[in-house]
Structure formats: structure tokens, C-alpha cells
Amino acid sequence: MTEQRIAPIDQTITNSSLYSHDYSKPDETQHPATVVGELTLWDRTVDWQTRSADVETFFLDNRTLPACIITGNGQIFGVLSRKNLTAALSRPFGREVFIKRPVYLLADVIDTTPIILPASTSIAHALRLATSRAGETCYEPILIDTGASIALLEVHVLMAAQAILLEQALIAKDELISEVNRAAADLATAQRIAEHEATHDFLTNLPNRKLFLQHLQSILQKHQTSPTWDCAVLFIDLDRFKLVNDSLGHDAGNQLLREVAKRLTNEMDLIGKEAGDITLVARLSGDEFAVLLAGLSAHKAAGIFATRALKAMAEPFYLSSETVYISASAGVVASLAGYDNTEHVLRDADIAMYRAKRLGKSRAITFEPNMHVLAETRLHKESLLRQAVERQEFNLYYQPTVTLPDQTIAGLEALIRWRSNGHLVAPGDFISIAEETGLILPIGDWVFREACETSQSFTRSMPSRRPVNISINLSQRQFAHEKLVETMQKSALYFGVDPTMITIEITESCAMNNPDRAISVLHSLKVLGFRISIDDFGTGFSSLSHLHRLPIDELKIDRSFTANLGHSAESEKIVGAILALAGSLGISAIVEGVETANQLAILEDMGCKLVQGFYFAKAMPRADIEVLLNSRQPFMH
Questions:
Q1: 438: Cβ–Cβ under 8 A, 6 or more apart, which residues?
Q2: Which residues contact 548 (CB under 8 A, 6 or more apart)?
Q3: What is the radius of gyration, based on Cα positions, of the chain?
Q4: What is the 8-class DSSP label of residue 274?
Q5: Greatest mean pLDDT among 20-24, 148-152, 354-358, 483-487
């Protein structure tokens, strides 16, 4: 039988019924014996003719001793156990007989055939050998040879050790089983979590793009076999989300995305069965969401949901201490007819969404095949615009602001032009692309530096003329940039420009999107000396409570009101009211878009002091405007 090597038993069962004695040292009291020579009772050497009474005394003095090993001439002679001694003494006249006998006559009491096992014997194997002896001897002690000593071990101790080990093994087994079960449960939980995370957005807990496309694929397959059972897909993108992220930080942006997810899900729940047999709201990435509505009336359901969802997005969002207003644009693929690829469905919904943005945002547009051409054209223009930024294919043109009634130049507005392949591209054809792609930031930096250089150049070339103020437009994305103030300060210092000769123009909607931040940024610019102007005034939703807190120097009245002067009494009242508001606040007012003599006359009657428009001059290159400034002549018509 294969034996398992474990720690020696005499080391394993310590402080129990285990004792050892070193027999490697010769006994100096040794003397010849006719039978077995001297006897060693455990660790005491006695004469072989000593009475057995000394053995009894020895046991009585060592009550924890289970037995003693008896040796003769250095050899194991036997083992006298306490059990055998007790049995001998319990016989009739046993004590009297026992104590009178010499030790060498104890052969009928001791075990004459002790089992001697090596210390490497496993407990289980030792136990099997000990209990395999026939009769009462199976309960006698056994000897464990450690090489240098002999260890004495009772079978019942061995059995106890085996029982302890078995119990420990069973406990370990139960613990192992329990641990395996826990590990299996943890693994199952981890797998469920991993599967959920693989198919859901971590921020909003909505299905992600992968799960959305899986559902769409399943519906597309069903549609191919049952064409009347259709599906509509909406691609929703938040308007001005980048502005919120840049101005309020990513935490606020994440909070906004969670709130948007809740509103979209809530709107889906509210329309219930009208939404279709199968509905799904997913977050694709960033501020992009997708909605799936499947059933017999998917097209109708898409219209209902789009209307409700866009209305919900227009409601104010309360983010910690900030109130934020945004909107959303949606592209709709109203049917799966003609599609065999889910990515193409999502692509076309995306194209329709961008069409909605270009048409003014906050609306839903259904995809039409001709939009592919528009998308490809736009993509090509974006590629050209990126090259233009690298090659600096831009020029600044300048349009004068004119004083009334003397019609002299009061200032200039810097307007960017893009010269692409020898042709000028108007700002309206590329600024929206620059905004969406982020290219507006490097373009805006270039505009500011170029305007600063122009201002300094005019000051040097026309020393006798009063310095002319140059106005520079900032987009929403520029205004939201965290390093705006620092960048402008560095550029002004680099070119040696007096900041009071630079006017920063932001739109009314840009200022009102986050009034508290706008006030803080504009104050910082004002402290540096820059003048502040609110452009396109009257088209936004200004709150007078915020307006009077803004450190502004002028208002620019939007050209849409000027166009109706002489045709609309309402427009005249609005222009008059804004001029009066500016006067009461002690700031200037510039009326944009003056193109006719009649418009000019009406404005002069209103007491307007500053105007701008094609009636006086279009935007012109730097060299032409320099000639105009040098002439110092008023505009004469």
C-alpha cells in the first residue's frame, strides 16, 4: 500500500500520550545478564533481577505514562503497557504474584512483538496496521522509530489523531465546497454584470449602441418576412451640449446626460402602446441617443415621440446650482423598407439629424435619399476646411461702423473670409461646420491675432489719426473655452495692442445660455480693458435682471428689425425701445443692416448715433479699409 509521507507522528501528536527516549547513548551501568542483561524501563535502567514491584511503582509515579519500552542489550524487548499491568494486577492474587516476581519474568505481561514503524508513516496507514492485529493486542501501543529515538504511541491516540484529521478534512471539504459555490455565484454575478456592461451605457444605464443594433437587426429580419410590421428609428443629438461641458465641467455634462436619458425614457413610457409593440431608448455615445419604435404604425409613433421628446428637451434642466437650457435635433428613418443593413439605417438617421441642425436646430427631419449628396458635399467641405486651417487660407475683411449724423468711421468689425481654390467662401457656408468640428477654436485664435496685428499696424501707419476700434466676434464654443481670457491677454500683450481698442462681440443667446459664467468671463475681459458688445440683440431671450449685470459697452440691434423699418410699425417700436434701453443703461447702440436711405432717415429721426450696413460700405480687405481710413472723408450719398 502506498504510504503518504507526512510530518513524523511523534511530532504531530505532541503533548499527548507520546514519549521518546534516546537509545543511541550506551548505559554506563550495563552488566552481563543471563537472560536479557540489563533492562531499561523507559528512561530508568534496572537490574534484570529487580522485583516487578519497582515497575508498579514506576507506573504509579508516572501517571501520564501509557507504557514503557523494555530493552535488553540495546534491543527492543517489548512494551509493558499500563493496560497490561492493570490486567495483571486485577487477576486473583495478581498483585501478590506480580510484585514478587523478578522483572525478567514479565514476558507473559509485556507485548513481545511490538510494531515498529518509521516516522514517515502516515497516520492512516499506522492506524490500519495497528488495528489489523488480532485480539486484544490490537489495542496495545505501537513504536515509531524516528531514527535517533523511539516514540511510543497508543492506538486510541492514533485513532483520535486520525479522527481529528478526518474532521479537519471534512471541514476543509465543506469550506472548499462553500468557497467553490461562492466563487461560482460570484462568477455568475460577474458574468451578468459583464454582459450588462457590455450592452449598456455605464452613465445612463440605457442600452448602448451594440444592444440597439442587435434589436434593430432582429426587427429588420422580421420586417423582411412581414413588410407590414415596420420600424422607425430616431437619431437624437443635443444642441449646445459641448457648451455646457466646456463652461460647467464634465460633472455637469454627465448630470445633464443622465437627466436627458430619464426624460426620453419617461416620454416613451407616457405614450405607451402608441409608441409601438417594441420600443427602445439607447445612448450611442457622447450626447447622441437613438430611439427604436417597432410595430404596425411605426411611422406615426415616430412623429408622436419626436414632438414630445423635443419639447421635453426644451424645458430647463436644473444641474446642482445651475439652470441650463438646451434643445435637441432629431433625424428620423420612418421605415426599414429598402434596408438590409442596420448600420445604414443609423447612418441615414444621423444624416437627417445633421440636416435638422443646419436648418436651425430644435427640430426633427425625416431622411430623404437626396440627403446623401448633401452629406457627401458637407464631408468634402469639412476636409477642405481642415486643410484651410493648416494652410491658413483665411483673410480678414473689415466693415465700418458709421457715426450719425456726420457719417464718419467710428470703428471696424473684423469678418473672416475663406479663399478656397481662388474663390471666397462666405462665413455662412463654413462657420457652422467649424463650430461642429471644433475647428472654430484655431480659426478664432487666428482671427484674434490677425485683428490685433491689424490694429497695431494701423496705429503705426496713421500716427496722427485717432486709433480705430476693431470688433471681433466670438462663437459660443470660443466663449465657453476655459482659457479664453488668458489667450486674449497673451495675444494683446504680444502685439502691443491697447485692449481698449478691441471690442469683443458675443451673441445675446451666447450670453444668456449661462448668465452667471458669462458675467464672470466678461468681467475678467473688462478688467483687462477690452470693450464688450452684445451682438444680434433682440433675437434671444435676454432677462433684464441679467442684462444690467453684464459689463457691456454696446448693444448691436439685429438686422432683422432694420429690414422692416418703413414697413412694420412693430419693428420701429422694437428698435426705438432698444435704443431707449441702451440710453438708460448708459451704453452705445449700433443698428446693423442699414441698406437704404429710408432706413437711415428713420433711424436718424429716432436719434440713433451709430449704424452699420451696405448703405455705407460692405466688408473690404485690409488694404482697402486702410485707404478709406486715410481719406478721413465722411460717407456721402
A1: 477
A2: 585
A3: 50
A4: G
A5: 483-487
Which pLDDT value is given to residue 398?
Answer: 95
Burial (CB count within 10 angstroms: exposed 0-12, middle 13-18, buried 19+), residue 285: exposed
Q: In angstroms, rounded to a whole number, what is the distance separating the alpha carbons of residues 302 and 554?
A: 45
The SS3 of residue 428 is helix
Q: CA-CA distance, 243 to 172, in Å (whole number)?
A: 61
d(CA 447, CA 478): 12
- C-beta neighbour count of 80 within 10 angstroms: 26
Q: Please measure the distance between the N-terminal and C-terminal CA atoms of the chain and give it in whole angstroms.
A: 123
Q: Measure the CA–CA gap between 351 and 292, rounded to whole angstroms.
A: 17
CB 620 within 8 A of CB 628: yes
Identify the residue whose cell numbers are 548505559.
27
Q: What angle do CA 4, 10, 15 make, to 5 degrees?
A: 135
Look up residue 316 and give its three cell numbers. 430647463
For 261, which DSSP code? H
pLDDT, tens digit (0-9, with 9 covering 90-100), for 477-531: 898 888 899 999 999 999 999 999 999 999 887 877 777 888 899 999 999 999 9
Render 26-38 in DSSP notation, one character per residue.
PPTT----SSS-S
Between 23-32, 140-149, 155-164, the lowest mean confidence (pLDDT) is in 23-32
Burial 402-434 (b: 16+ CB within 10 A, else e): bebeebebbbbbbbbbbebeeeebeeeebbbbb
Q: How far is it, in rounded angstroms, from Cα 239 to Cα 516?
A: 20
Cell matching residue 33? 545478564
User: What's CA 242's distance to the chain center, in Å?
Assistant: 18
Max CA pair span of the chain: 157
Q: List, in sequence order, every beta strand (DSSP E) within 188-326.
A: 230-239, 278-285, 288-295, 317-319, 322-324
Decide: pTM greater than 0.70.
no
The burial of 170, by beta-carbon neighbours within 10 Å (0-12 exposed, 13-18 middle, 19 or more buried), is given as exposed
Euclidean distance between CA atoms 593 and 574, whole angstroms: 15
Pairing mode, strands 364-366 and 142-145: unpaired
CB contact at 8 A, 417 and 425: yes
Give the torsion sign (CA, 509, 515, 517, 518). Answer: positive
Give the separation between CA 388 and CA 176, rounded to whole angstroms. 68
**β-strands 288-295, 278-285 pairing:** antiparallel
State whether residue 402 is helix, strand or coil.
strand
What backbone torsions phi and psi does residue 455 show, to the nearest 5 degrees? -60, -45
What is the rounded distance in angstroms from the CA atom of residue 537 to the CA atom of residue 558?
A: 6
Task: Please state the rounded mean pLDDT for residues 208-218.
Answer: 93
Burial class, 629, CB count within 10 angstroms (exposed 0-12 / middle 13-18 / buried 19+): middle
Q: How far apart are CA 632 and CA 636, in angstroms?
A: 12
402 closest CA partner among 145, 617, 583: 617
Q: Which helix (H) or strand (E) holds 157?
A: helix 155-199
Rounded distance between C-alpha atoms, residue 401 and residue 423, angstroms: 26
The number of helix segments (H) and strand segments (E) in the chain equals: 23, 25
| The three cell numbers locating residue 378 | 458637407
User: Which 8-state DSSP code applies to residue 15?
Assistant: T
